[in-house]
Write a structure and sequence with these properties.
Number of strands: 3
Order of helices and strands: HHHEEEHHHHHHHH
Strand order of the largest sheet: 1-2-3
Number of helices: 11
Largest sheet: 3 strands, antiparallel
Radius of gyration: 17 Å
CATH class: Mainly Alpha
Number of domains: 1
Shape: globular
CATH architecture: Orthogonal Bundle
CATH superfamily: Intergrase catalytic core
Strand content: 5-15%
Mean pLDDT: 90
Structural class: mainly alpha
CATH topology: hpI Integrase, Chain A
Helix content: 40-55%
């Protein structure tokens, strides 16, 4: 059984809902280029901050419309050796244009050295501070979901509401088990109403 939850023991929501995700994106687009693209990357890919910090220009497919992420959760193969797992997540072309303009992705890809350097030269604490600041500006309430993890869970709930198959969402989020991804099928509130409404269409 998965340990991951969409609510804490007190019943507080641990994910950003659709309205909060939209407000976060709007607030992110008012930030300086580095912070804007960082926040948009988390919003559009559902990646973990530690995964974001490893993204290099070489992992941006501008023409293919995707970002390649390295899953950082430790996994072993049948022989007990550590497995390195990469996954590609599709993102909007508009975001890739913003990313390219802000960080010179296409230009950096022409140099092996520059293509291998992380796009955001920051620590995880700084990422957390940036995201929290943008969430405060966006009016996200001071609650357990006001965090990068809340943004990741919000991505999962949003994908489920939009009808993304769980096996595809599993791949995008880098979950080892489908049972972990299945928690997003337990979305509640407006998200659950949106899913349920499809029954009467």
């Amino acid at each position: 059984m998965s340990e991951m939850r969409l609510h804490d023991p007190a019943g507080n929501r641990l994910y950003l809902n659709a309205e909060e995700r939209a407000a976060f994106l709007t607030a992110a687009r008012r930030q300086p280029a580095r912070d804007r693209t960082l926040c948009e990357m988390l919003h559009w890919t559902g990646c973990r901050p530690s995964e974001l910090l490893e993204i290099t220009p070489a992992r941006i497919d501008l023409s293919g419309g995707s970002i390649t992420l390295r899953s950082l959760k430790k996994r072993k193969d049948a022989s007990g050796r550590q497995k390195v797992i990469f996954r590609s997540v599709p993102v909007p072309a508009e975001f890739l244009d913003t990313l390219n303009t802000a960080h010179g992705i296409r230009e950096a890809q022409r140099s092996r050295k520059k293509a291998a350097q992380p796009i955001w030269n920051l620590g995880r604490v700084r990422v957390w501070q940036i995201v929290k600041g943008v969430m405060i500006e966006a009016g996200v309430p001071d609650a357990p979901h006001r965090s990068p993890k809340g943004l990741r869970h919000g991505f999962g709930v949003h994908a489920t509401v939009q009808g993304v198959p769980l096996h595809m969402l599993q791949r995008w989020l880098g979950h080892a088990q489908l049972s972990t991804t299945a928690i997003y099928a337990d979305a509640v509130g407006k998200e659950e109403k949106d899913i349920a409404a499809r029954m009467w269409r």
